[in-house]
Automatic annotation (TrEMBL):
Highest taxon listed in the record's lineage: Eukaryota
Organism this protein belongs to: Helicocarpus griseus UAMH5409
Subcellular location: Endoplasmic reticulum membrane; Membrane
Transmembrane regions: 20-40, 117-140, 146-166, 173-192
EC number: 4.2.1.134
Keyword field: Endoplasmic reticulum, Fatty acid biosynthesis, Fatty acid metabolism, Lipid biosynthesis, Lipid metabolism, Lyase, Membrane, Transmembrane, Transmembrane helix
GO terms of biological process kind: fatty acid elongation; sphingolipid biosynthetic process; very long-chain fatty acid biosynthetic process
Protein name: Very-long-chain (3R)-3-hydroxyacyl-CoA dehydratase
Pathway stated in the Swiss-Prot or TrEMBL entry: Lipid metabolism; fatty acid biosynthesis
Job of this protein: Catalyzes the third of the four reactions of the long-chain fatty acids elongation cycle. This endoplasmic reticulum-bound enzymatic process, allows the addition of two carbons to the chain of long- and very long-chain fatty acids/VLCFAs per cycle. This enzyme catalyzes the dehydration of the 3-hydroxyacyl-CoA intermediate into trans-2,3-enoyl-CoA, within each cycle of fatty acid elongation. Thereby, it participates to the production of VLCFAs of different chain lengths that are involved in multiple biological processes as precursors of membrane lipids and lipid mediators.
InterPro entries: Tyr_Pase-like_PTPLA
Protein topology in the membrane: Multi-pass membrane protein
One Gene Ontology cellular component annotation held by this UniProt entry: endoplasmic reticulum membrane
Length: 194
């Protein structure tokens, strides 16, 4: 996430945020490139379960790292609303831990999983690179700015659709009615919340 723009920040905070954004960009770039190479390397049909096997731990790690953004917003070192940041990070964290990790049989074989990863990774590589370039004090290239503010038109529905489908599929295999109820509650939140 980007620093506040209203007042200059101490060098240590800028360096920390530059390191954070660069690290996050590299995590998501690895996820993006591995997803693409896995899907494209299959001779006849994409091996979706290979995407899951290769990337589920990486995705959990990258998304768990994003919990720091809630702390960044809460402490004021970035200019983002706490509630919005919490909601976005929480929704994805539920996805990676309570759905993708907890229901591997559903997630590993589902085509929406790599689609969701491609959407998340593309959006996050662009977003974190944008912030890293800004924090480094460089001029943001026009193409990066355009990608930052335009890709969501395509990526957002793909990412949300994948999340929703995988959560719905988890409700069909869980034998715990409380878990299914919580998931159905979250599925209903996608309509007004997203």
């Amino acid at each position: 996430m980007a620093p506040k723009t209203s007042a200059p920040q101490p060098r240590a905070i800028r360096l920390y945020l530059l390191t954070y954004n660069t690290t996050a960009a590299l995590f998501w770039l690895h996820i993006l490139l591995t997803t693409l190479s896995t899907l494209l390397s299959s001779s006849s049909s994409p091996n979706i379960s290979s995407v899951y096997t290769s990337l589920e731990p990486w995705t959990r790690c990258a998304q768990t790292l994003a919990v720091a953004e809630i702390l960044h917003a809460a402490t004021g070192i970035i200019h983002s609303p706490i509630f919005t940041t919490f909601t976005q990070v929480f929704a994805r964290s539920v996805q990676v831990w309570a759905i993708n990790y907890a229901f591997p049989a559903v997630t590993a074989s589902s085509r929406p999983y790599p689609a969701m990863l491609l959407a998340w990774a593309t959006a996050d590589v662009v977003r974190y690179c944008y912030f890293a370039v800004m924090l480094a004090g460089w001029s943001i290239p026009g193409v990066l700015k355009w990608l930052r503010y335009s890709l969501f038109i395509v990526l957002y529905p793909v990412g949300i659709g994948g999340e929703w489908w995988l959560m719905y599929k988890a409700t069909t295999v869980t034998s715990n009615w409380a878990v299914a109820g919580i998931f159905y509650f979250f599925l209903c939140l996608y309509v007004p919340g997203e």
